[in-house]
Write a structure and sequence with these properties.
This protein is α+β, with helices and mostly antiparallel strands. The protein contains 14 helices and 13 strands. The strands form 6 sheets. A 3-stranded antiparallel beta sheet has the order 3-2-6, with no helix packed on it. Strand 10 and strand 11 form a beta hairpin. The C terminus is likely disordered. This is Endonuclease/exonuclease/phosphatase domain-containing protein.
Length: about 400
Amino acid sequence: MGDFNENLLLANRNNLKNIILDNGMHQAITEPTLYCENSSSLLDPLIVNDIHILAYHEMSENILEANTRFHCPVSGILNLPKPKYTKFKRKVWDFEKGDYDRYCEELRQVDWETLLDTNLNNAVSIVTQKILDAANNYIPSKLIVVRTKDPPWMTSFIRRKICKRKRSHKKAKKYNTPESWENFKKIRNECYFEKQCKSLDSHVDSIKNWWKKLRNLAGLPSKSSDYPSILLNDTYLDDNKDKANAFNRYFCAQSSVDGSSTNILEINLDDVIHTLDNIIITQEEVYDQLLLLDVSKATGPDSISPRFLKYAARELSYPLALSFNKSLQLCIYPYDWKIAHVIPVFKSGSQEILSNYRPISLLSIIGSELISDEENEDIFKVVQSFILETGRFGS
């Protein structure tokens, strides 16, 4: 809505009309909105991307004293649900206060060979649970409430200060005494300076985060992390759960390929020299990979932080090597390592079209280490023995 300075009533002026049509939008005003001495024009359109959200619209009479050149007021009522700002609880670890000697000692005392003498999926679950049990015993943690709309510097202390400031402001307005206003100003200043200090003291680990912090301090609006409305079967999805289900169905459909009409390559098993079950991952190889872990990486769905693995690399190299080799010998990838947190990432085009997004998966760090350990000369031996052929790779 606004003064676009292009008369939509003229047949030869199509710039704005084409933009509206190309983006699938609708223009609701059909009468002139600007009146001059000898002409009238439609310069104040009301444009929406979905005509069904426009519950009411009108063009009112001139409310100004000028009767020769004036714009008529344009108004509309949008039928939109109020967004619900979600919050959730998350467990955070205080790694600086962890007792890693006792943490490693507990893992060292585990009889891994006996515990892992079971099927592969159970063995992987046991390793994961033992790591989490040891971490819970010797690394302090707490549950925090994450509010998606909170700025990065918001803490429980600052939130209490803000509530205290609001209460003091109500009292100052109610009693209107110099003492109450002085008390409010004091609390307000404490709250403000605490927010600024916390924001400046917080760690900045990238240029992107530095600019994000600068925009926040300058009072500029930050980019929203919410996904826009998604168009599915001529219907717009606004609820986050509906959007997540739509993305999930779409991404699953991309991996469900009908291969009935595809010519399957034949493999002559007599020519096979090396197979996947011949690949042996040693304990030292696992140990070296664990030492290379980046502790700043995000935690996967199994809640295993890279710090848990890196700080006990020597103790965990044996059970992980057992699990990795068992996976290769059985040619089975454990179920727990297949679970992923999937995030739709926008590519290009219209943000309301599902096909304009690609999935990014956050997998278990332990499962990712198996893939890293396999990336050695043994995998090339398998390729040379024609188990993996060029025609089996995607383009």
